[in-house]
Every structure is written in structure tokens, then in C-alpha cells.
Predict the structure.
Amino acid sequence: MRGLTQAEVDGLNPGIRRLVVWLRANGFDTCDSGDGQTHDHACDRSYPYVTILVPKWELVAQADRLNRLLVEVGVPIRSISEEPLSGAIQASYDPADGSAVIDLTGVSDKDLPPVLVTFKEKINDKSS
């Protein structure tokens, strides 16, 4: 997984850029996103979303890690069955092609605190 270039960040919907950059900084391999309002791309949904690719053997652990990170920065996560468009995480595996994805829905830049910390910075803070 690599970081995003400025051109790639500029190509994201404006209401989801901070979230995608933060997820990438925390080691998540984002592959699709939308802010639910811009609709620059045909695949954009009517609600905010970020899709993350993960190795199939890490699917559950990475979904749990994403949940913890979001809760730590003050983003409430609900069960997908409660309010699927309001801060929900769903993890799925497709045995036909071996792909494993985490779908974060209902969270956009407006839901994030003004200052975000990456996991690496949190480790450094704890060791001080």
C-alpha cells in the first residue's frame, strides 16, 4: 500500500478527502470512495462511503481495527442493521475471486474532529 499523490487526493470527492488520507496514513488500502454529494463518478453512491481492500486472512482483525480507530477519534459506529447509512462498517469476502473488502458507510470529513492522529503517532504518544 502506498500513500496518495496530491493529484490523487485532488481527484477524490471533496467531502471525503481527509477521511481517505487519514485511513491511508493508518495503513488501510482504500480503493473507492465518495462523499455522497459530489457524484463526480458513475459509481458514486448517494451516501458517504470508503471501500478498503484487505488480505482475506486479516478481514475480521482489520474491520475491528477500523472500528477502534474511528471510535477513538469520536466517530460513533453502529451496527449495519441499525442504521446502515450512519457510521457503519461491513466486512465481506468473495470466495469466487478471493477478494476481501471492508465497506465504511455514512462517515465523511464532516464527521471527523478538526485534528486527526495516526496510529503511529498514538504509539509515540504512549511511549513518552
User: Anything to note?
Assistant: The longest helix spans residues 59-72. Residues 121-128 have pLDDT under 50 and may be disordered. Residues 6-127 form one domain.
